[in-house]
Amino acid sequence: MMRAGKLVLVLGMVVLAAGCQRLSGGPNYAAPLPATPTTPVGAGTLAPLDPNAAPPVGTTTDGTGAPADLASNPVSAPGNAQQVGRTDLLGGWKLASAGDNCMAFMTLTTWSGGYRANTRGCSTPTLSGISAWDLNGNQVVLKDGSGVIVAQLYSSEPGKFNGQTSVGSPISLYR
Question: pTM higher than 0.70 for the full model?
């Protein structure tokens, strides 16, 4: 019995070693890829980012090129706007605005201007720049990394928020 066990063990090791490409060196062995030459990284000083800089001309619907000032000129609440609590917004959401469809994720981690948020798969700078969210009464406010309001939304039905971005586009947040 002991001899049969040893025989099975030895045969198993032989089969394992034969199946290993590193030990076989046969025709199926993949050779390592050659190194790819790269250009050296240049040295220099970058200008600091200006969080108050206006977006490129032509990014708003009014033709002025300046973003809408949602902080001093908020989007008005619809008549059927529902009350919403912080925990109602936690987790993953689908985000749609101006032909861009992506995901938004909201947490209760405190961050400048509210709570931490991030987006995934957004192609427009407006949506990909969302870094925070907050509640202002029954209004959901989405902000960028410098605390500038990106969008304001209201809930008119459970699990769905509609509003406007700072560049004047309609925006929806839904599950």
Answer: no
